[in-house]
Amino acid sequence: MTELTVKNVSVHADKSMLVDDASFALARGEFVALLGPNGAGKTSLIRAAMGLQDVSAGQRLLGGADVTTLSPAERARQIAYLPQTRPLAWPNSVRDVVSLGRFSHGAPLGRLKGLDAEAVDRALQACGLSDLATRKTNTLSGGELARVHCARAFAAEAPLLIADEPIAALDPRQQFRILDLIKSYVDHGGGALVVLHDIQLAARYASRMIWMKDGRIVADGPPADTLTPDRLKDIYGVTARIEGTQIFIEGAV
Fold this sequence. Notes:
By secondary structure, this protein is α/β, with parallel strands linked by helices. It has helices at 42-49, 72-78, 94-99, 114-126, 142-155, 172-187, 199-205, 223-226, 229-236; strands at 3-13, 16-27, 31-35, 57-62, 65-66, 79-82, 160-164, 191-195, 208-213, 216-221, 238-243, 246-252. The protein has one domain (3-252): Rossmann fold (3-Layer(aba) Sandwich), CATH 3.40.50.300.
């Protein structure tokens, strides 16, 4: 079973500590929300976990192997990654962009066939993009483009997914659509680690919450155990009430 394991990882930038002695694991069947204020170290942590950023201490294991011993293609076959910034160099068709998800499998881009073409078709259908497959990406709305990037990640058919703020700048309906897609991916056997700022949505979708502050993981567990008024006060500096599944932010401390 593919699992990403991070053990006592620290990341420095010059004299600044970006991540301090962080440990967590991600396995299939989990929807994990990574939470914390801006500058808490969330992006540095996930990039370090995947071997995209050097560490000053600690281990990163993917399927039991050190991530630094795996080729980029081997890593991409096990973890699909949606970074915060997802620029498209030119306005390709939706199908061509989604096809990039098969690159780690050695697929000849633009000439997909067999299993690779089928994987792209499945990703397009799952994300509701089949009717838009021939459209140029520069003609899409923000929500449609977000689904294209999700489809590209899903086309890799990797067992794990890491998404850094996939719903940023989207309207509420599109936020639900993207998180529903990720939840479906998890329900079908994948494992997802998703950086989120919307605590209400994190509580609705996540089976686990990892909370970060000042580069450290301060809590890791189910929403029922880790989502508390004291936690929100400590992490975000706000007062809040929690009534069942509803979170009411009342103001700054």
